[in-house]
Design brief:
It is a single chain. The chain has a domain of about 180 residues: FAD/NAD(P)-binding domain (3-Layer(bba) Sandwich), CATH 3.50.50.60. Helix 9 packs across helix 10 and helix 9 packs across helix 11. It is an alpha/beta fold. The mean pLDDT is about 95. The chain is globular and about 65 Å long. It is built from 11 helices and 15 strands. The structure holds flavin-adenine dinucleotide. The site of flavin-adenine dinucleotide has 39 residues, from helix 1, strand 2, strand 10, strand 13 and strand 14.
């Protein structure tokens, strides 16, 4: 790499939302830092995703000066959650966005480059600790490294950390079915639990459609053809005319998640931080990316890069751990069809329950008293065989 400095304050491995946010977070906290963003791919590049972007993601980015990212896109304000014949469809408290990752990720990388970050195409294979630095592939040396290299992270493997539970999902782009225009539609599965199919209107005539399920040791992983069949069974017609089918793993968060100490920090999918209830991962990717970038900047400012992990643990401990405990519990409860149906009935009956469920699934929400009460009531209400509440006698 002629002409490229080999010693950096911060090297970020992976330029998805987590990595770009880490680089941006560091530059926002300390604009003079020498930050390199490494990715094995050239941008723009595609990434298998439902492309659902929670409004909270834009709030986080605005907090580090990145605005206008999706101002040319049309927001989606309706969400339909269903299972069998039962459904809860309401307006969300704040609209969400459906932005193809080919677009979103390239815009974030452009913002990082505009902030002074150096972008390099490089696939990281190896990581070693020197006396006072971390060395990537024997050639790129940095005081602090952020591993943002996704579900199959090489940085995580180099640290000797194991991956937790994973889901597998397939997505494509298809003409949006008229009945699902202007909405994000989620249909929970009846088999292969937990599982769901989705159709998210992009606002440009196409919908991102897909299906995903938890991988379990007691059943074989689904093939691509099976994922496609299960999507068609749950949302008939949604995949018609679909193209660009792409599958990928989702490393799901658990209540046991703890950030590592030292000079190497893991963020986003590399840290196993996909919401186990919904498969939402961009919010945690951006949130932990920014937290890691700020942590690196604070440790470097103090002349103690080895304390970057301690700063990161402090920031995420307060903001993330309680939410992870609540989503882990909610995901366990959602393995029961009865509880999913109770959740649908409770959120159909009460906007507050619906809003709290959306917060839990998309950002840092908790199992609130309103949600618990709504679920309890729905569980105690006698239902007909189709899951609908019985009419009072
Ligand atoms: C089918 C599907 C649907 C989903 N739907 C949604 C959704 O609607 N909303 C949502 O919020 N989340 C969704 N998710 C989850 C979301 O896609 C991820 O959580 C998110 O992409 C995590 O961002 P990241 O930056 O951590 O990782 P990634 O986006 O995976 O980025 C990792 C980057 O690292 C690079 N890289 C990998 N290895 C190396 C290496 N060795 N050296 C250098 N670079 C490397 C890759 O090229 C990539 O650019 C979905 C996931 C799947 C699979």
């Amino acid at each position: 790499m002629a002409g490229v400095p080999s010693r950096w304050h911060l090297a970020v491995v992976g330029a998805g939302p987590a990595g770009a946010a880490a680089a941006l977070g560091a530059m926002h906290a300390a604009p003079g830092l020498r930050v390199v963003l490494l990715d094995r791919a050239d941008f723009p590049r595609d990434k298998a995703c439902g492309d659902g972007v929670a409004p909270h993601v834009l709030d986080l980015l605005a907090g580090i000066g990145v605005t206008g990212l999706v101002s040319d896109k049309r927001p989606v304000d309706r969400l339909r959650l269903g299972r069998g014949g039962l459904a809860s469809e309401r307006r969300m408290a704040r609209p969400a966005w459906v932005v193809p990752r080919r677009v979103l990720d390239a815009r974030l990388v452009d913002a990082a480059v505009a902030a002074g970050v150096r972008l390099l195409r490089h696939r990281v294979r190896d990581l070693r600790h020197d006396a006072d630095a971390v060395v990537l592939d024997g050639e790129i040396s940095a005081a602090v490294v952020v591993g943002a290299d996704g579900a199959h992270s090489a940085v995580r493997r180099a640290l000797g950390q194991h991956r937790g539970p994973v889901a597998l999902a397939l997505r494509g782009y298809a003409p949006v079915a008229p009945r699902w225009r202007g909405a994000q539609v989620i249909e929970f599965g009846a088999q292969h639990q937990p599982s769901y199919a989705w159709s998210f209107d992009r606002g440009d005539g196409l919908a991102n459609v897909g299906y995903g399920e938890l991988l379990r040791a007691d059943r074989p992983a689904p093939t691509r053809a099976q994922l496609f069949e299960r999507l068609q069974a749950l949302l008939p017609g949604a995949a018609e005319g679909g193209e660009d089918w792409l599958g990928h793993h989702l490393p799901l968060s658990t209540a046991r998640w703890r950030p590592q100490r030292g000079r190497v920090l893991l963020v986003g999918d590399a840290a196993g931080l996909v919401n186990p209830l919904t498969g939402e991962g961009i919010h945690h990717a951006v949130a932990t990316g920014i937290a890691a970038g700020r942590a690196a900047a604070a440790a470097l400012r103090d002349g103690q890069p080895e304390r970057a992990g301690a700063h990161y643990a402090h920031a995420t401990g307060r903001s993330l751990l309680p939410h992870l405990r609540h989503t882990a519990l909610a995901a366990r409860l959602a393995r029961s069809t009865r509880l999913i149906e109770a959740g649908l009935r409770a959120s159909a009956a009460d906007q507050d329950v619906f809003d709290d469920l959306v917060e839990l699934g998309l950002a840092r929400g908790r199992l609130t008293p309103a949600l618990a009460l709504g679920l309890g009531r729905a569980l105690l209400t006698p239902t007909r065989p189709n899951g609908r509440p019985q009419e009072p006698a």
